[in-house]
C-alpha cells in the first residue's frame, strides 16, 4: 500500500462533527468519573506514601506523544519505585520488580490511571483512543513500522481498541500488531464503538487482565 492511498480511504479524514461529538462525550464522562473517583485520591496517596515514605511522590508525571505528535505531560499515580528508570526508558516487563506492592494492585485495577481524567478534561487525551506512547519509543517505532505515525491523527486515549483487543506489548513486534487495531479504530470510529470499548475495558478491569 502506498501512503497516498490513505488520502482516499474513507474514515482517515477527520470529520468536524464527530470530533465535536467525541469531545463532548469526553468532557461529560471524564467529569462524572473524576467526581466519583475523588474520594479514592487521599486513600491512594496515603497508601503510596506508607509504602515508599512520607517524602516520596504519590503522583508520576511523564512526557507522552499526543495528537499531531505534540508532546504533553501525562498524570498517573506512582506505581513503581522512585528512580525506576535511572538506566533509561524501558517498557514494563512481566512481574517487573520495579513495581511496588500497592502499585501492583493499582495496575491490576487500573486506578493508577485515574489522574489521566485531568488530561482528558484539558484536551491532551480522549477517553478512548490509541495508547499514548513515550517520545523515546516513538522515533524507534516509526523507523521500524510502516504507517506508525498515522496513529497520531487522533488524540490518545485512557483506553482503546488495541488495549482491550491485544495483550500488553513490550517490543516492536507487539507494537506492529497493536497498530492494526489503532488504524481500524481511527477509520471506523463511532460513539457505538467507543461504548463497546468502554464495556470491554470494564470487563478487563473486573477480570484483571493484561496489566503489568
TrEMBL record:
Principal subcellular localization: membrane
Record flagged with keyword Membrane: yes
Membrane topology: Multi-pass membrane protein
Assigned keywords, A-Z: Membrane, Transferase, Transmembrane, Transmembrane helix
Coiled-coil regions listed: none
Bacterial sugar transferase domain sequence ranges: 22-206
Stretches that traverse the bilayer: 27-48
InterPro entries: Bact_transf (IPR003362), EPS_sugar_tfrase (IPR017475)
Locations listed in the record: Membrane
NCBIfam families per record: EPS_sugtrans (TIGR03025)
Family of this protein: Belongs to the bacterial sugar transferase family.
Protein name (database record): Exopolysaccharide biosynthesis polyprenyl glycosylphosphotransferase
Amino acid at each position: 500500500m502506498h501512503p497516498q492511498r490513505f488520502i482516499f480511504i474513507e474514515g482517515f479524514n477527520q470529520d468536524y462533527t464527530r470530533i465535536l461529538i467525541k469531545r463532548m462525550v469526553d468532557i461529560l464522562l471524564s467529569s462524572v468519573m473524576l467526581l466519583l473517583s475523588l474520594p479514592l485520591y487521599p486513600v491512594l496517596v496515603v497508601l503510596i506514601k506508607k509504602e515508599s515514605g512520607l517524602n516520596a511522590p504519590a503522583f508520576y508525571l511523564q512526557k507522552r506523544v499526543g495528537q499531531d505528535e505534540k508532546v504533553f505531560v501525562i498524570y498517573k499515580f506512582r506505581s513503581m519505585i522512585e528512580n525506576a528508570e535511572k538506566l533509561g526508558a524501558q517498557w514494563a516487563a512481566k512481574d517487573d520488580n520495579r513495581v511496588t506492592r500497592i502499585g501492583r494492585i493499582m495496575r491490576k485495577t487500573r486506578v493508577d490511571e485515574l489522574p489521566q481524567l485531568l488530561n482528558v478534561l484539558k484536551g491532551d487525551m480522549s477517553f478512548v483512543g490509541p495508547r499514548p506512547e513515550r517520545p523515546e519509543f516513538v522515533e524507534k517505532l516509526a523507523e521500524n513500522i510502516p504507517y506508525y505515525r498515522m496513529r497520531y491523527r487522533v488524540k490518545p486515549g485512557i483506553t482503546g481498541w488495541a488495549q482491550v483487543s491485544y495483550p500488553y506489548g513490550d517490543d516492536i513486534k507487539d507494537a506492529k500488531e497493536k497498530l492494526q487495531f489503532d488504524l481500524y479504530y481511527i477509520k471506523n470510529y463511532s460513539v457505538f464503538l467507543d461504548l463497546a470499548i468502554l464495556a470491554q475495558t470494564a470487563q478487563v478491569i473486573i477480570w484483571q487482565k493484561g496489566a503489568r
